[in-house]
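Incident review: delayed structure delivery

Summary: a single-chain prediction request sat in the queue longer than the usual turnaround. Root cause was a stuck worker, restarted by the on-call engineer. No data loss occurred. The affected request and its eventual output are reproduced below so the record is complete for anyone auditing the incident later.

Affected input:
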Amino acid sequence: MTTAHGYAATSSTAALAPFSFERRAPGPLDVALDVLHCGVCHSDLHTARNEWHNTVYPTMPGHEIVGRVTAVGDLVSKFKVGDLVGVGCMVDSCQHCQPCADGLEQYCDNGFTGTYNGPEQGTGANTYGGYSDHMVVRESFVLKISHDEGALAAVAPLLCAGITTYSPLRQWNVGPGSKVGIVGLGGLGHMGVKIAAAMGAHVVLFTTSAGKREDALRLGAKEVVVSRNPDEMAAHAGSLDFILDTVAAPHDLDAFLALLKLDGTMTLVGAPDRPHPSPNVFSLIMKRRRLAGSLIGGIRQTQEMLDFCARHGIVSDIEAIRMDEINTAYERMLKSDVKYRFVVDMATLKAA
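Output delivered after worker restart:
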């Protein structure tokens, strides 16, 4: 066992604060790593404040992790000491159900093990995430980082925001000739724009804020629509092959379903704390449209995403923060006061 240090919440109303705990010693199939950077995801806030009503306290968030390998187990073959690696939203799964066999560990029939807020396979113990100085993770859930070392902080959000948007874009065959709508320009949405554009799609960004037009075009969108403007929305009726809705707040889905072509698909990846209003069935049946959901991606596809992003020079737009700024960052995140992802420089943890 080793003593780890990080920041955790002890209740739904408690601020994140310094917290020490024990990590397991690396086993034969484990990789130990020092955490260098950890992205701040809206899921971290939902969990810390128990907004999904499933938090086990104390809870230590963080699942957008980039680190350097410090030790490997005797049976580890893919990594060596000194390698730059990533850890995303999962650190284990049952490994024997059909989804796991198909490389879809995020849909494990027995429930995957989250990087934080467990439960750990076999023991049921709570897991602690990347707001900490080091981690020990099963080799098969560790990912290779091939981006330049100077970009590591901006790579961290790819481990959640990147794969959350990449996976549905791949699943529904987005590519050259596709006209794709991205709803929302936040941590997820800005990655969706970058990745869909790199895949060769014609990207239309939908936002409630006219002030985001210039930024959306910079990120790769070809058109920007202010969704509160009925004329701008009507101009795109029946024109889109695919819509990726990244907004994590309840909103009217019918307005966007009407923009899909025959057999078009709208996929939800934002996870609000309250349900969306139910869509009108006629929004779906009149054009054989589909409303779908998607949850991150499997380990194999997450590695594919990292390699794709490295080839295309894609990273997240970030604001680096100190560990002791995390509570302020949560409040700013609630106000959408970040472009577009906070990332904790974990070198600041010791001082915090």
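Verification: DSSP finds eleven helices and 17 strands in the chain.
Action items: add queue-age alerting; document worker restart procedure.
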